[in-house]
Amino acid sequence: MTIKKDKQTMVMSIIVGLMSVLLVCSMFIQFRAVDKSEKSNIESLRSDELQTQIASYKTRYEETMEQYNTNQNTISEYAASIAENKESTDLLDKELSESNTLLGLTDVEGQGVIITLKDTSEATYAADDLIMLVNELKYAGAEAISINDNRIVNLTDIIAINNSFIVINSDARISSPYVVKAIGDKDYLMSTLNLKNSGFVDLMRINNLEIDVKASDNVVVYKYSKELNADIMKEVE
Amino acid sequence: MMILTIIIGSLIGVLLGFLMPTIPYTASKYLAIAIVAALDSVFGGIASHIKKNFDLKIFVSGFFVNAVIAMLLTYLGQKLNVDIYLAAIIVFVGRMFNNLGIIRRYYLNKIPQKMSEKSKK
Fold it and tell me: Which of B11, B25, B96 to mutate to test the interface with A (most CBs of A within 10 A)?
């Protein structure tokens, strides 16, 4: 009886022991699984934690979206102002190039006349003759004039030094033959120069000087090669 | 003897639990419900032992079958998109509290008896 009971108790103990092994083992496996997974990925989070996370992500998303929209607006504003600036820059560029052309700071071409003046053995050209020619040309509507490729601008001087040579634009020495190019209405220029008796051509020929006037459809006048400086004058406001 | 085997078994269980590879998180849900079912069975067993109607067959079958059924129900719940495992947990934990209450009352009654016996002596 006691042996039977002992045996029964033993079987029971073994079964219970095995069960406790199983239970505790699975519990610890579970503990480790939970321990490991809880920290890391989103799949292991519980729904309330997920809700908080989603809410915070949503807020962040909205903030970012707002920021993005603001930035987008700023960018489009900038783009608009850039376009505006470009327009005004283009306009300014155009004005500037026009002004430069008028001032004589660019190479220009067009119809006009080419006048070649040569000293002869009997007489030489004086500075006054050149000044007179330039005046005549301007009077006849010339838009650009150069003498031996020295551009005549508003501040150009033509002076004789010691009656021996002629200086133009302060430091360019020129001598015969003088090639004067002028752009303007070629018919006007020709007729003004060729006036009978009082015209420049006749006046020079009377003085035994050699002069040759040619009309051309393509006269090239080079730009003023120095800088135009205004040190003293100022714009009146 | 019984208590000794339980302690030894638990120690072996701890060791094995640390040596075993970790299971994926999705599976850990089933394991958790199985553990709760098993714990319920354990407390049920203790309670029935106190009530002197402990039966090893019932205990062992309850231990395993409850665990397996709880897992199956959880799986079904997952398939049906209903959290059946919540119901299982409520039932098991409720029963655990019941059984714990029985155990507690038993020992609460036992201690004063001993005290009175001592005082009689």
Answer: B25
Distance from CA of B106 to the nearest CA of A (A): 22
Nearest to B70 by CA among B101, B97, B102, B39: B39
Judge whether A44 is closer than 8 Å to chain B, CB to CB.
Answer: yes
Q: Where are the beta strands (DSSP E) in B1-121?
A: none
CB within 8 Å: A33 and B17: no
What proportion of chain A, given as a percentage, has pLDDT over 70? 94
Contacts of A178 (CB under 8 A, 6+ apart): A116, A117, A118, A125, A130, A147, A148
Residue A194 CA to residue A227 CA, distance in Å, equals 35
Complex prediction ipTM? 0.78
CA distance B47 to B116: 24
Q: What kind of fold does domain A108-221 have according to CATH? A: Alpha-Beta Plaits (3.30.70)
